[in-house]
Write a structure and sequence with these properties.
Layout (H helix, E strand, L loop, with lengths): L12 E13 L3 H5 L10 E13 L3 E12 L5 E11 L4 E12 L5 E9 L2 H7 L5 E6 L1
């Protein structure tokens, strides 16, 4: 794989998520990760429910999160996530995160390239979040 895309801008927050549920459609994530199944040519969809914490310019709890994963036969995963963030000062933020995850060779990690859409009233506080990249363990 080519070198990881460098992060543009500054890191504005970190997230720590716990998986709270999973819905698969035809092939399970465990079967794929365990090597028992391969991603079909048409891909596979798995919905992952999560919650957790967010820290940085936005600090609070992540509630009601769902990541709609489309696993592709080429090894990449399309990301389409939604979550509600409850900030420490009592505000609710509807977040939409989309992008792509690419597996690393011989490592249980994926490199993420994603953008996060934030409501207009928060853009001045957190700035633009387009084109971020990072790393996520599998």
């Amino acid at each position: 794989m080519t070198e990881v895309q460098k992060m543009r801008g500054e890191k504005i927050y970190e997230c720590d998520f716990n998986i709270t549920g999973m819905t698969d459609y035809g092939v399970t994530l465990n079967a794929l990760l365990g090597g028992k199944e391969k991603v079909p040519l048409q891909g596979a969809r798995i919905d992952v429910a999560f919650e957790g914490e967010i820290k940085g310019r936005i600090t609070g709890k992540v509630r009601s999160g769902v990541e709609y994963l489309h696993l592709r036969a080429d090894g990449r995963t399309d990301l389409d996530g939604r979550a509600t963030v409850e900030t420490e000062d009592g505000h609710r933020i509807a977040m939409h995160i989309e992008g792509v995850a690419m597996p690393r060779s011989n490592e249980p990690m994926m490199d993420l390239v994603a953008k996060c859409a934030s409501p207009p009233q928060l853009r001045s506080m957190i700035g633009s979040t387009r084109g971020r990249s990072g790393v996520s363990p599998l």
